[in-house]
Design brief:
The complex is a heterotrimer of chains A (435), B (178) and C (315). With 435 residues, chain A is of the alpha/beta class. Chain A folds into two domains: 4-50 and 374-429, Urease, subunit C, domain 1 (Roll), CATH 2.30.40.10; 53-362, Metal-dependent hydrolases (TIM Barrel). Chain A is built from eleven helices and 19 strands. A five-stranded antiparallel sheet of chain A has the order 5-16-17-18-19, covered by helices on one side. Chain B has 178 residues and is α/β, with parallel strands linked by helices. Chain B has a five-stranded parallel sheet with strand order 3-2-4-5-6, sandwiched between helices. Chain C folds into two domains: 7-134 and 290-306, Rossmann fold, CATH 3.40.50; 135-289, 3-Layer(aba) Sandwich (Rossmann fold). In chain C, 38% of the residues lie in helices and 14% in strands. In chain C, the strands form two sheets. Chain C has a five-stranded parallel sheet, with helices on one face. In chain C, strands 2-1-3-4 form a four-stranded parallel sheet, sandwiched between helices.
């Protein structure tokens, strides 16, 4: 028997069974009771859970155009620290990822960095303007093999444009990921519209501006029989609409961000723009509805909407500040805190929401695979019994706009494996995964 | 705690001060009594009634709050401002008699002189104090004194007046003033 | 107390003590003493990143009457208008030795950001931040009401106040609702539904769309300015319809209680929310509000700066 590259000893699988897992030549070589052979690296995982490597369907890597905030390289490093083996890079870069050229550039940057798979998302409309379709076909057929299309940052608000886009992507096996925000109702909006915004004198972003678009789009998706994905769902009303749509067999999926599972709009009372995000933090009632929906599968996946911003964009008055929070490095801990430790979900469901389902929606073949012999070894090992304190000066992202600075979070990621090589190991970024 | 002045002592002292004021100023024609709140204001009112009963006419009487002119404001939390009521006849060319309960460092009177300076130009400014407890930090003296009370800096003088405290009494207590 | 960012920073007794201090200071200003040495040697900066003449001059007069040095940093022509960040402006002021900054800014929360930041160490006084609050305006409004209708009481218990106009965008309304309720008055907000914020149900005030039914029962009618731009933003169809339903004209004024007063924070849109007849009538205390503003702002500066460091509001 050849020596395995890695042996993960005594870990819990997502279904809670204990196993030794060995990795050789980029794949899982064995899964089962006590491994008897040799291994170059042995990892004592007795208190740990092994999950398929996390897949983020919603990340902003900012390159090309805003390399001061993040690059594909720095974002990849942040990703592996957070247990990710694949991230989908949103298209609102500069230039916008609306051509084969830009998506291939982003794809290549991800390959060169080599820490995880970067799957570029293509813009639905040229320049994200919401008027003319971008070269969806060219992007789908490019080396980047784009399947997810999104104008995120902007809403595809014109109903005719959205209809045509939903129809057109059918040819390419694609899915439209909609950032649901009616632009007319949210001009200059700063935070959730409600009691808090009324008191603080900040212009409100009403829940109905999100829900109205979701309602319209699920009906459109049904009418033209196409695939729709709703980005960052934030309201109880939106959850109801998705539930209704799924009950009718409409092909819609939905995501929720970790921050919307935990944080609420009263945090804006300090006027600290680290809490300014789009869509905004909502109310306790919304948080509860989102958690229940993630638990029962109405919401299919967790996606971070990792949105790095340089310090000067956050160290100012609220209305001048940029929208967005970091998310990659804290996502799994937040999900453990809000969903597992609260008893709403088990680790098997976490594996589904954070790896299997996003991989399926994005069509990412080597990700979200069952932990069985022969699968590509994209894995994350987490110790749920340990805690860690978030320090914004120690994040791997180039930016530091995390809302959790100083928070103590449960769940320490000990290792991340990409194609059978450890990319993250006990606090340090290790090897380059290789092509 | 020891009693330095009883109610009767206070009454006698105020009567004597009233006579001395009239003697020094040759009557009450040109005087203005300004009490420094809180207790100085009540004392000024009492002196005013005594003078009225002697002379048959009431001298112009008012209050002068000196809080805004203090030099030690920053050493404590913000103090409430008390009323300042200058009689309508004003102070220009008048003999202003400042009335206070205790003369100590002299800083209150210094502030009162600054306050008066902003209002006008009296002919003279005189000071009547119920108690002089020594320890001056500025070259200030009283013209009319109820009682000289030698004290140490580790003691404090408490003046109680019936208008506010229900009874008249002056006591010396251990423990420096705050 | 180091800062005055919102009426919520004060409790009832602190608010009343500011009003009482202003009463004494007003007497000082009316009387022979025009200048007090109380804040001599202190530097107060007016950081007006949003245009305002009235408020800035009022704070400036207040500071100067207390012998403070005043530096004006106003929007036009300053580095603020050239895009300098609030942070850099604040650090410049700190380098200049500002003991206090009176800040007016178009962004809600700007005063709090300045106070919470490490950029400067002086007191921050909110002179109006976006659509959030304008505490000194509410204090001078309460002072004015107390002076006319207080009957010697220290607070405003038992009085009925109507605030009429663009509540949604009004920092004056927000501060006034908080302060008037704190002082025991009953507040009714009158506006078209489009100009009332969602989430108003928990405010300590009642809401009415019907000005005519509210007017005969109130002791104070406080009119708010309505901006012309609100029409193009679809808040109401046109000026005529707004005035017809929510304008204070002579006919409405005639149905006011005897002794009731008319207030307005200024500047007025004569003919839109308030008619010239009303603005110039005997019921109007609008110009007096401006005078009272100086005394009240002197009181605020005194309470924040004259004493030593003790945080009001830390119970």
């Amino acid at each position: 028997m050849t020596t395995a590259d890695y042996l993960i000893k005594g870990a819990s699988l997502p279904d809670a069974k204990k196993a030794d897992i060995s990795i050789s030549n980029g794949v899982i070589a064995s899964v089962g009771s006590e491994f008897k052979g040799d291994a170059k690296n042995v990892i004592d995982a007795k208190d740990c859970v092994v999950l398929p490597g996390l897949v983020d369907l919603h990340t902003h890597l900012r390159e090309p155009g805003r390399e001061d905030a993040e690059t594909v390289l720095s974002g990849s490093r942040a990703g592996v620290k957070g247990g990710f083996t694949a991230v989908s890079a949103m298209a609102n870069t500069s230039p916008v990822a609306d051509t084969a050229g830009v998506v291939e550039q982003v794809y290549r940057l991800g390959q060169e960095a080599g820490f995880l798979d970067v799957f570029p998302i293509g813009a639905v409309t040229q320049g994200l303007k919401g008027e003319a379709l971008s070269e969806i076909g060219a992007m789908a057929d490019s080396v980047a093999r784009v399947r997810v299309f999104s104008d995120d940052g902007n809403c595809v608000s014109d109903p005719l444009v959205m209809r045509r886009a939903l129809e057109y992507i059918k040819k390419f096996g694609g899915v439209i990921a909609q950032h649901a925000q009616d632009p007319r109702m949210t001009i200059g909006s700063q935070m959730n519209e409600g009691e808090i915004s009324a008191r603080l004198g900040l212009k409100g972003w009403p829940a109905v501006a999100e829900e109205a678009i979701i309602a319209r789009d699920v009906l459109l998706a049904d009418h033209v029989q196409s695939r729709l994905h709703i980005c960052h769902l934030t309201t109880a009303g939106g959850v109801e609409i998705i539930r209704w749509a799924k009950a009718r067999g409409i092909n819609v999926t939905a995501e929720v961000t970790p921050h919307h599972l935990l944080l609420t709009d009263d945090l804006a009372s300090s006027y600290d723009p680290v809490y300014k995000v789009n869509p905004p933090l909502r109310t306790e009632a919304d948080v509860h509805a989102l958690r229940e929906a993630l638990a029962d599968g109405t919401i299919d996946i967790v996606a971070t909407d990792h949105a790095p911003h340089p310090t000067e964009s956050k160290e100012c008055e609220w209305q001048e500040a940029a929208f967005g929070m970091l998310g990659l490095e804290t996502a799994l801990s937040i999900v453990q805190k809000t969903m597992v430790d609260s008893g709403l979900m088990n680790w098997s469901q976490v594996a589904d929401r954070m790896s299997i389902a996003p991989a399926r929606i994005g069509g990412y073949e080597n990700h979200g695979q069952p932990i069985v012999v022969g699968s590509v070894a994209n894995l994350v090992v987490i110790n749920p019994t340990q805690e860690w304190t978030v320090d914004r000066d120690l994040v791997l992202s180039k930016s530091s706009n995390t809302p959790y600075h100083g928070h103590v979070l449960p769940g320490v990621i000990t290792h991340t494996f990409f194609k059978g090589a450890a990319t993250y190991s006990n606090g340090t970024i290790t090897s380059v995964g290789g092509k | 705690m020891s009693v330095a002045l009883s109610a009767q002592d206070i009454t006698r002292a105020l009567t004597r001060i009233s006579h001395e004021i009239l003697e020094k100023n040759q009557g009450s024609a040109n005087i203005v009594l300004l009490g420094i709140p809180t207790r100085g204001a009540h004392l000024a009112t009492r002196i005013s009634s005594i003078i009225t009963s002697i002379e048959g006419s009431e001298p112009p009487t008012g209050t002068l709050d000196i809080t805004l002119f203090r030099d030690d404001l920053r050493m404590r939390p913000p103090r409430a401002i008390m009323p300042t009521k200058i009689p309508t006849s004003g102070i220009e060319g008048k003999d202003v008699i400042l009335v206070d309960d205790v003369l100590f460092s002299g800083r209150t009177i210094r502030a009162a002189l600054d306050a008066l300076g902003e209002i006008g130009r009296p002919r003279t400014v005189q000071l009547a104090a119920l108690v002089d407890r020594g320890h001056r930090e500025l070259p200030i003296k009283a013209d009319f004194i109820g009682k000289n009370l030698p004290t140490s800096k580790n003691q404090s003088v408490r003046v109680l007046l019936s208008e506010i405290d229900g009874r008249d009494e002056v006591t010396i207590e251990e423990g420096a003033e705050l | 107390m180091r800062h005055l960012l919102s009426i919520a920073d004060l409790n009832k007794s602190e608010a009343i003590s500011i009003l009482d201090t202003a009463t004494e200071l007003a007497r000082v200003s009316d009387g022979a003493v025009k200048k007090l040495p109380t804040l001599r040697g202190r530097t107060i900066v007016n950081l007006f990143a949003e245009d305002s003449t009235r408020t800035r001059i009022s704070f400036e007069a207040a500071a100067k009457r207390l012998s403070a040095d005043v530096i004006n940093f106003s929007a036009k022509g300053s580095s603020v208008s050239k895009g300098e960040s609030l942070k850099d402006t604040a650090m410049t002021l700190q380098a200049m030795g500002a003991d206090a900054v009176v800040i007016r800014h178009s962004a809600s929360g700007a005063a709090q950001r300045l106070a919470d930041s490490q950029w400067m160490s002086g007191s921050v006084i909110n002179a109006g931040d976006g659509t959030h609050e304008h505490p000194s305006q509410a204090l001078l409004d309460a002072f004015t009401i107390r002076k006319h209708l207080g009957m010697g009481a220290s607070d405003l218990a038992g009085l009925n106040v109507a605030i009429v106009g663009d509540i949604l965008h009004s920092r004056v309304a927000r501060s006034n609702v908080l302060l008037l309720a704190m002082l025991g008055a009953k507040v009714t907000l009158v506006a078209p539904p489009t100009l009332l914020p969602v989430g108003i149900q928990n405010w300590p005030a009642t809401v009415s769309y019907d000005f005519d039914s509210v007017i005969p029962h109130v002791d104070v009618v406080m009119m708010l300015r309505v901006q012309q731009e609100r029409m193009s933003d679809l808040f109401f169809p046109n000026a005529r319809e707004y005035s017809r339903y929510f304008g204070l004209n002579g006919e409405r004024m005639a149905s006011m209680k005897s002794g009731a007063i008319v207030m307005h924070p200024g500047p007025m849109n004569r003919g839109l929310e308030i008619s010239a007849e009303v603005a110039d009538s005997a019921r109007s205390v609008i110009t007096e509000q401006v005078t009272n503003g100086v005394s009240v702002r002197m009181a605020i500066l005194y309470v924040l700066l004259a004493g030593g460091a003790l945080e009001v509001g830390s119970n």
